[in-house]
Design brief:
264 residues, mainly alpha, 63% helix
Length: 264
């Protein structure tokens, strides 16, 4: 057992050194101010919601992001808030079919199914609130008997039962944005860590476990670490179609050393 722990410790130490290089590269690519701002936005978007209104908004935004991206949805966030009464669940639950249809003329994401899904989910949200009027209390009760190391399977299943338009992926994404870190991993950070050889296990939760270990070792917020990795995978050389020859991590990267590594 000890050798295995030592191997893991060495992996985290090497990963922390790589993370520092990645953070420097991100700052050079984006500029320090822009890079810092993007990390702050990512962390803020994944903080545990302060109340049901914040949580419901994130549920709706996850639905609107289906087939798009959160960057695309963020451009419409303020008009979406206005159209959906600040995402207060009780207010959204009162939106009539006529008003929902009229929203298709507003400068929001014009998707009838998504609009109707959010209204239906508001009605379900209100129906499922406990005596204190908080749906999040229900979530807390389920979480107490769930398994974070397995990706919160009971919570994921509960959200799929409770709400419309929520497949497993969107349910996990919603939980992630409610502060349940291991509910889903960012595909960019997953791709990066696997290419670098730090995570060989096929389960996304193992990616999150390693990111959390990096955060603990570096005294950082795990979402800030994930943001740094995801940005490097998005704007740096480790995109889906990588440019290994110009990557500052290529000397220690197993993928870069592979015979078919990208050389562009």
């Amino acid at each position: 057992m000890k050798p295995r722990k030592n191997v893991k410790r060495l992996g985290v130490r090497a990963g922390l050194a790589a993370l520092r290089s990645i953070e420097r590269a991100n700052a050079e690519l984006l500029g320090m101010d822009e890079y810092s701002a993007r990390v702050r936005r990512y962390v803020a978007a994944h903080d545990a919601p302060a109340d049901d209104t914040v949580a419901f908004e994130r549920l709706c935004l996850a639905i609107f992001a289906q087939g798009l991206s959160f960057d695309a949805v963020d451009k419409h966030r303020e008009v979406l808030r206005s159209a959906f009464d600040g995402f207060d669940p009780a207010a959204v639950a009162r939106i009539t079919a006529q008003r929902a249809a009229a929203l298709l003329q507003e400068p929001i994401i014009r998707n009838r199914s998504k609009i109707e899904g959010c209204v239906e989910n508001a009605r379900r949200w209100v129906a499922l609130t406990d005596a204190s009027g908080q749906y999040l209390a229900r979530i807390a009760g389920i979480a107490a008997d769930d398994h974070p190391a397995e990706g919160w399977p009971k919570l994921t299943a509960a959200l799929q039962r409770d709400f419309a338009r929520l497949g497993e992926s969107t349910a996990g994404l919603t939980l992630k944005r409610w502060g349940f870190f291991t509910a889903r991993c960012h595909p960019g950070s997953q791709r990066l860590l696997r290419r670098l050889g730090y995570v060989n296990d096929g389960r996304p939760q193992k990616v999150q476990e390693f990111v959390a270990a990096l955060a603990q070792a570096g005294g950082k917020d795990p979402y800030a670490v994930e943001a740094a990795l995801a940005l490097f995978a998005a704007v740096g050389p480790c995109k889906a179609d990588p440019s290994c020859a110009v990557c500052l991590l290529n000397e220690g990267c197993p993928s870069a050393a592979a015979p078919d590594a990208a050389v562009s």
